[in-house]
Amino acid sequence: MGTNADAAQLPPWLLRVLIGRNPKRTLVRIVVLIVVSFVVFRFALVPIRVEGGSMLPTYKENGVNFVNRLAYLFHEPRRGDVVAIRLLAGEHVMYMKRIVGLPGETVVFHKGHLFINGKLLDEPYVKLPGNWEREPVQVGPDQYYVVGDNRDMLWEGHVQGRAKRELIVGKVLL
Amino acid sequence: MKEWSIRAILLAALVGLGFWGWHVFFPSPEKVIRKRLGQLAKAASFSSKEGLLAKAWNASVLGEFFTPDVQVTVDVPGTQHTLSGRDELLQAAVGARSAVSSLTIEFPDIKVIVAPDENSAVVNLTAKGKVPGQRDFYLQELRLRLTKIKRDWLIYQIETVKTLS
């Protein structure tokens, strides 16, 4: 009752801004917007917040981004793609890493440089190089080797390795 | 007709209330385990404001979540060790409490698989630890095995697991 009286007192231009010319149509628009937002942000573009420094300087801490779940509907992940990888328990926390090794390849770090099948990989995105030295790793037929861009970290503190294809949620959008 | 519809609404409300009540008073094993793990995360967290007595009390509370013969296998880069028994685990917990001033532990993801006999369960979880003042947080994937003793779900095995091999 009070709300109706208040609404009647509002200037017409403000009413038009708030609820439009046709309130029913406005309501339908709001419902459609909510449904579309839910579907898009749940099933297509998953919002994420970057935590940790393993992808520095490409992705800074606390930055907001999106994971495109539909990116690999028609093709498989490619080298250089930054992807989100879900953990075994769920998707509330995911790893954000770059794909450097494809199925069947051999990945090795020598004096901080990355070699794929014995050939040096050009990595222009690595602005913080390190001096990692690791034994060769054979990537399985349904796996991808992922690593962060920040190599200026201790090997022990930098999560990386072979990720199963089924755990790759999608490609990071921006 | 009007009376009929009121009765139907009342009946539906009663059925809904019964359903809700059933779930509250007789929760599923999965729900009980999730709740228990939430309590574990809370018990494992501590702040710098804790006094000595509170520290000792909280450490003893932590022990209630494990069987006396609990086995813990830690295999993370740079560290590889095993803890056998609740006492050893609690000693390690007390040691951790003295190493850092405060720690907040969360389990953002918990995946519970209850055995058909509902007397044991396997849980995969993501543990996130944050030390105030430090920029980075600790993330660890764990696999727990639980057993039901009387009405309590107790952890008898903990092992670290890795998504990336």
Could you please describe the fold and organization of this structure?
The complex is a heterodimer of chains A (174) and B (165). By secondary structure, chain A is α+β, with helices and mostly antiparallel strands. Chain A has helices spanning 2-9, 12-19, 23-44, and strands at residues 45-49, 64-68, 82-87, 90-101, 106-110, 113-116, 119-120, 137-138, 143-147, 161-164, 168-172. Chain A is built from 3 helices and 11 strands. In chain A, the strands form 2 sheets. Chain A has a 7-stranded antiparallel sheet. In chain A, strand 3 and strand 4 (90-101) form a beta hairpin. The longest helix of chain A has 22 residues, at 23-44. The mean pLDDT of chain A is 90. Chain B has helices at residues 2-25, 29-44, 52-63, 86-99; strands spanning 66-76, 79-84, 104-114, 120-130, 138-149, 152-161. Chain B is elongated. Chain B is built from 4 helices and 6 strands.
Q: Structural class given helices, strands, pairing of chain B?
A: alpha+beta
The number of strands of chain A is 11
Q: Helix coverage percent of residues of chain A?
A: 10-25%
Helical residues, percent of chain B: 40-55%
Strand order of the largest sheet of chain B: 2-1-6-5-4-3
Mean pLDDT of chain B: 88
Most extensive contact:
A-B, 25 and 21 residues
Give the end-to-end Cα distance of chain B, rounded to a whole number of Å: 66 Å
Question: What is the mean pLDDT of chain A?
Answer: 90
Measure the end-to-end span of chain A: 49 Å
Give the CA-based shape of chain A. Answer: elongated
User: Strand arrangement, largest sheet of chain A?
Assistant: 1-2-11-3-4-9-10
Structural class of chain A: alpha+beta
Structure annotation, total helices of chain B: 4
